[in-house]
C-alpha cells in the first residue's frame, strides 16, 4: 500500500501538472525512440542524472535526452556515492513475480520439507548448468523448478524433449546433468511445455543459461557459488 501511495504523495507535493508533464515527456520519448529503433520499448523513466531518460528494451538499458539527440549505451555511476546506478536499476527491472511463472512447465524436485523455492532455466548441454546440478545436491529443504530451455543446439531440444517425456523427469534430468547418463525417453509425448518455455525465455529476456529466480522475484544470471544460492534461499525463508 505504501509503495502505491508514495507516487501520489509526490504528485501532491509537486503539483498534478508537473506529474502529468513528466508522464507525457516519458511517453513522447518512448514513442519517438520506438520509431527510431524499430523495436518495442518496455519502459521510459526520467533518471536523476543530467536530465537523461532511462530506456529499457530487450533486457538492456540505454539513455537519451528529451530530444533523442544522443543515445548512450553504457553504465551510469553516481559521482557522489560511486554506486553503479545502471546495475541497481537492471536488478529491479529484471525482477519478476515468482507466482507468475507457469510452474507446470517445469521439472519439479522436492528435497526435505521443500519450503524454500527457486526456479532455474537451463539447457541440457550447458556446462555451467551441469556444474550447478552437481552442486545443487547440497541444498536441502528446497523445491527446485527447472525449466528446460534448449537454446544451444538442436541436440539440446532433442534431449529436453526426451527428459520431458521420461516417466520420472527429475531422475532423467539428474542422471544426465550429474552423471552423464543420456535420457532414454523417445521425446514423442506432448512437449508443449518445452515450446512454451522457449517462448517464456524470450519474454523474460533470458539470453543465457543457467538463469535463476527466487521467491522474491530476484534474478541471478549465470553460474553462482552454491553458498550464494543458499544465502538467497535463507533470506527469502525468513
From TrEMBL:
The keyword Signal applies. The keyword Signal applies. GO terms for cellular component: periplasmic space. This is Thiol:disulfide interchange protein. InterPro entries: DiS-bond_Isoase_DsbC/G, DiS-bond_isomerase_DsbC/G_N, DiS-bond_isomerase_DsbC/G_N_sf, Thiol:disulfide_interchange, Thioredoxin-like_fold, Thioredoxin-like_sf. Pfam families: DsbC_N (PF10411), Thioredoxin_2 (PF13098). It comes from the Bacteria. SUPFAM superfamilies: DsbC/DsbG N-terminal domain-like, Thioredoxin-like. Residues 1-24 form the signal peptide. Belongs to the thioredoxin family. DsbC subfamily.
Amino acid at each position: 500500500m505504501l509503495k502505491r501511495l508514495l507516487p501520489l504523495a509526490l504528485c501532491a507535493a509537486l503539483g498534478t501538472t508537473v506529474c502529468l508533464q513528466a508522464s507525457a515527456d516519458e511517453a513522447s520519448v518512448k514513442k519517438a525512440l520506438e520509431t527510431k529503433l524499430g523495436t518495442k520499448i518496455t519502459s521510459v523513466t526520467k533518471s536523476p542524472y543530467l536530465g537523461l531518460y532511462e530506456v529499457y528494451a530487450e533486457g538492456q538499458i540505454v539513455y537519451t535526452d528529451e530530444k533523442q539527440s544522443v543515445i548512450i549505451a553504457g553504465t551510469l555511476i553516481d559521482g557522489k556515492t560511486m554506486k553503479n546506478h545502471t546495475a541497481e536499476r537492471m536488478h529491479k527491472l529484471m525482477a519478476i513475480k515468482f507466482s507468475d511463472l507457469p510452474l507446470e512447465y517445469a521439472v519439479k524436485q522436492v528435497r526435505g520439507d521443500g519450503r524454500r523455492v527457486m526456479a532455474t532455466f537451463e539447457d541440457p548441454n550447458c556446462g555451467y548448468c551441469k556444474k550447478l546440478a552437481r552442486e545443487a545436491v547440497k541444498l536441502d529443504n528446497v523445491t527446485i523448478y527447472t525449466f528446460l530451455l534448449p537454446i544451444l543446439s538442436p541436440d539440446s531440444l532433442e534431449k529436453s524433449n526426451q527428459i520431458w517425456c521420461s516417466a520420472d523427469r527429475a531422475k532423467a534430468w539428474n542422471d544426465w546433468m550429474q552423471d552423464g547418463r543420456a535420457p532414454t525417453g523417445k521425446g514423442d509425448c506432448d512437449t508443449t511445455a518445452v515450446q512454451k518455455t522457449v517462448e517464456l525465455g524470450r519474454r523474460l529476456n533470458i539470453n543465457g543459461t543457467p538463469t535463476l529466480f527466487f521467491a522474491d522475484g530476484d534474478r541471478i544470471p549465470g553460474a553462482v557459488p552454491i553458498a550464494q544460492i543458499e544465502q538467497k534461499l535463507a533470506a527469502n525463508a525468513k
